[in-house]
Amino acid sequence: MECLGVSSVQNLNDLSALLATQQDDDDDEDCKNVTACAQMGPGHIGPPPKKDKEVSAGHVKKNSKDIWREEEVAEGSQYDDLADPRPQPEYEIILKQSVGTEDLFLGLNRKDPSSMCCEALLVKIKLPDTKATDVVLDVKEKFLDLRTLKYKLGLHLPHPIHSDRGKAQFFSEREELEVTLLMKRPMDVINMQ
């Protein structure tokens, strides 16, 4: 790669001086024996990076005994167990909507095939060599926790749901659990009218 001409180096130096808010003398001492082309790089343009000692106001803790803020901990993290060797089963999340003939042929409810018009989440979980009595299922607003003798699944749901209005069905012939969860849609009153 060819070295830039003297005028180009001078232009970069002028641009760096214009954009820099302060210059570090340490860089100049380290680079005395290096040619002007090797000195310049993308890191020399603009203000120098902040030092590690500076702390932004967003990272200041209110209580000195707190390790983290409550909003930093994801819902369902209490179920994460790194020492548990059970594998995660295969699963699939499908969005569902209730569609009738008035929607399909007449378009009376203004429903379309988009995910915005879906009312429920269907979670299909494959559980080979599992009986329905072995399944322990716990559903929260944004988290699904499934435990069996052979598998564990901690699933963060893509949309908040009504945890008290769901239903689950185990199909022995397919060795599959289907969990249907009604989604919380607070803006449907506004969007669907």
UniProtKB/TrEMBL annotation:
GO molecular function terms noted in the UniProt entry: dynein intermediate chain binding; protein-folding chaperone binding
Gene Ontology process terms (BP): axonemal dynein complex assembly; flagellated sperm motility
Boundaries of every PIH1D1/2/3 CS-like domain copy: 88-182
Stretch list, region Disordered: 38-63
GO cellular component: a single term: cytoplasm
Pfam families, alphabetized: PIH1_CS
Family as reported in the entry's similarity comment: Belongs to the PIH1 family.
Name this polypeptide is given: PIH1D1/2/3 CS-like domain-containing protein
Organism the protein comes from: Perca flavescens (American yellow perch)
